[in-house]
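JOB MANIFEST
job_type = single_chain_structure
chain_count = 1
residues = 175
[input]
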Amino acid sequence: MKQNSCRQYLSLSALSIVLSVSTLPVFALESDAKQAITIDSNGASYDEKSQLSTYTGNVVATQGSIRVNSDKLVVHLKDGEAEKLVFTGKMAKFKQTPSPGAKDITGQAETGEFYPKRNLLVLINNATIWQGNGTYSSDFIEYDIKTSLVKAGDKNNDESNSGKQRVHVVIQPKP
């Protein structure tokens, strides 16, 4: 009887290890959202009335594996929490490691909006994202950080506007 209990315990332990290892990539994505946002810049100002925090000059913002580089960053706060981050520059850049060992997802645009609570990054004007062996270019790109889903084209994704916002995609063959 004692031997059966020991086997059951070992089996359950092995199963829990296998399950925890198999969920590592998802955990890595979710862990970004649970990390603090840190910002380094040459200058900073905060307006308590409007709850806007502005950072200028060589701005580097990170949250977990997400990193944004820009000339200017405006953080919109609500009740002391970051609701939206708007980054601008000659070409503001971002990168994220989606899971351990995976290739980084990188992107750039003239303007970017990051919504931490929604895990959403929006790139506006001359936007490009490099994901895996593909490149997506458009004036408007949405990137879901949690699922690594890229949507490019018109902001409204309305087919009646087709042709106004062209999307350019390049899929490279695997080496």
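[summary]
Helices lie at 2-22, 24-34.
Residues 32-171 form a domain with the lipopolysaccharide transport protein A fold fold (CATH 2.60.450.10).
exit_status = 0
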